[in-house]
Amino acid sequence: MECKAIMKEYQILTDKKLHHYLDVKEDKNKTVIDAMRYSIFAGGKRLRPIVAIATYNLFKDNLEEVLPYACALEMIHTYSLIHDDLPAMDDDNYRRGKLTNHKVYGEGIAILAGDALLNYAFEIMISHARTQSNANVHLQAIEEIAKAAGMNGMIGGQVVDLESENKQVDKNTLNYIHYNKTAALIISAFKVGAIIAEATETDIAHMNSLGKNIGLAFQIQDDILDIIGDEKKLGKDIGSDVENNKSTYPSLYGLQTSIDEVKRLTTNVDKVLNIYGKRSRFLHDLSHYLVNREV
Amino acid sequence: MECKAIMKEYQILTDKKLHHYLDVKEDKNKTVIDAMRYSIFAGGKRLRPIVAIATYNLFKDNLEEVLPYACALEMIHTYSLIHDDLPAMDDDNYRRGKLTNHKVYGEGIAILAGDALLNYAFEIMISHARTQSNANVHLQAIEEIAKAAGMNGMIGGQVVDLESENKQVDKNTLNYIHYNKTAALIISAFKVGAIIAEATETDIAHMNSLGKNIGLAFQIQDDILDIIGDEKKLGKDIGSDVENNKSTYPSLYGLQTSIDEVKRLTTNVDKVLNIYGKRSRFLHDLSHYLVNREV
């Protein structure tokens, strides 16, 4: 219960800041700002922001400090979904139970709204960093996010995922997709909280380890839910991966092995969190929530 | 002649650095890196990098200092062309006489290659800024580029341009498109050179004025060339704006008024450059080259 209350608190903090950032003066560019808002406020659970706030809070209390990065992570995640849903990519009509961006605004605006969210994420982080006395700490955090989101991170994963459609892929390729498409940005969320809190290199390395294990478990669980989940709760078509003939962890290893792998990764997480004792309670509960969620 | 030799020198400097940045270790993401290289090395004239190097060189000599920003500007310009050429946008098959990115790699990869170039532009600038002792100067330059490229700059202009297809627009709307779609990033190139050279606020304001006048003149000239240019030299379909029923400066004001406006803007440029005397010789020649180019 407490875990959900804290998640809710962090969601509200994030949403308030996102509203602040997207409450911009509209000019003739109104359509793209509307399209950006549509997807940002389409019911995302703010998991990446919650992670960044949580790891920050493991070391420091002034949560306001990490919010620009929490919001930037959510904007980057949202842009990747907008582009991923396009006809040239996954061709999805619904996301979180609502029409996808291009179904509402058309493909051209959806592409530009995605571009604008990515660009704005950097604009926010850089404008914030300029006002800080410890600019180098902030540059380290921005670099972390930039690398995670780029061609050797999230975009790389999307490319290989796209090329792997309608064919069976090997274990290495599936790992590459999982690690980069989803885990990379989640790992950066874990690290960025610690970086902004000016935690030690050792602590940042621990957060990196947490992110890796949870990020991979999260993606495998996502594949599992695509098979056994509840269509209404998930807000997207169940079995769409099977229908698209996508290679997933369960399709390559079987369902039970996938469930066991999620357990193994979760055990790794617990080991790291034990180092931090009681103050890691929320991160512990959050990790189990992320990995064992039903939807 | 001297102007062209210096342009060539700056092009070579930029290309060498672009090769350095894109000579990355390939993994399973090879396709997207190939697609990024394809468009970056598709014969662009490096006008934005040349501008940034030129304004830097008005104040300082160590050109290497400005190259990360010169390359980032070219990557952002190139990503915008890749996305602009997509079927959902301008639907162009050729760019600079070569097949557009999506005609070679498919729409999905072209979208991701554009995303990756935008992301990499920021990655490059941020990683560079982290190594510098004057981080705040570098953050100022990055912020300048981020704002110019974003929803209140280039992307805003693209959105309004897209929405204005197949209809007549008023003068305000055309100005908004010209100012944002093309001029904004060119203005940022003029300013960034001066910022990185740690020029005074007054000098930066002068560069801003140069950028505004040249950026607008450049776009109007582009519209003029679409009517009277040489298809082979321009490397794209002449009259494509007319064919797409796009509102352009000449279509709203007539050809002669457009030519006169280019002259008026050029006079403004000369007034600013007179302040800098002989050392602004290259910028003077470059401005006239940009504005009066035949292709």
Overview of the structural elements:
The structure is a homodimer of 295-residue chains. In chain A, a hairpin with a 2-residue loop joins strand 1 and strand 2. Chain A has a two-stranded antiparallel ribbon with strand order 1-2. Chain A has a single domain (2-292), classed as Farnesyl Diphosphate Synthase (Orthogonal Bundle), CATH 1.10.600. In chain A, helix 3 runs antiparallel to helix 15 (281-292) and helix 14 (255-274) runs antiparallel to helix 15 (281-292). In chain A, 51% of the residues are buried. In chain A, 73% of the residues lie in helices and 1% in strands. By secondary structure, the first copy, chain A, is mainly alpha-helical. Chain A has 15 helices and two strands. The interface between A and B is large, with 55 and 55 residues. Chains A, B: It comes from Alkaliphilus metalliredigens (strain QYMF). Chains A, B: GO terms for molecular function: (2E,6E)-farnesyl diphosphate synthase activity; metal ion binding.
What distinguishing features does this structure have?
295 residues; two-stranded antiparallel sheet; mainly alpha; homodimer; magnesium (chains A, B); Polyprenyl_synt (chains A, B); EC 2.5.1.10 (chains A, B); globular; Farnesyl Diphosphate Synthase; Prenyl_diphosphate_synthase (chains A, B)
User: For the terminal residues of chain A, how far apart are their CA atoms?
Assistant: 17 Å
Q: Class of chain A, according to the CATH hierarchy?
A: Mainly Alpha
Strand content of chain A: under 5%
Give the fraction of residues assigned to helices of chain A: over 70%
The class by helix and strand makeup of chain A works out as mainly alpha
Kindly give the count of domains of chain A. Answer: 1
- Unreliable stretches covering 5 or more consecutive residues of chain A: none
Largest sheet of chain A: 2 strands, antiparallel
